[in-house]
Design brief:
- By secondary structure, the protein is mainly α.
- It has one domain.
- The chain is 68% helix and 0% strand.
- The chain is built from four helices and no strands.
- Helix 2 crosses helix 4.
- The radius of gyration is 17 Å and the shape is elongated.
- 5% of the residues are buried.
Length: 79
């Protein structure tokens, strides 16, 4: 679990890269990922990493809400 916490900056950076890519794609019709790594397997790997980054950040985003990820909250005492 400590390793996953250490990788938080990586996940956040990948989310920022993915978000900026979508913004640039919408505004200027230019896919920056495809421009840098080309189309094909390399681009697919980048997109998969951005998707994994999004999934890894979900528990952190839910920490302040009443919604909890199964298995991460403790049961009240006496129940």
């Amino acid at each position: 679990m400590e390793l996953l916490k250490r990788l938080d900056p990586l996940w956040i950076a990948l989310l920022i890269i993915g978000g900026l890519n979508w913004a640039i794609l919408a505004l200027f019709e230019t896919n920056v990922v495809a421009e840098i790594v080309g189309t094909g397997t390399a681009a697919d790997v980048v997109y998969v990493l951005v998707g994994i980054a999004a999934l890894m950040c979900v528990p952190r985003m839910l920490e302040g809400t009443r919604m909890h990820v199964p298995g991460t909250h403790s049961r009240p005492h006496g129940v």
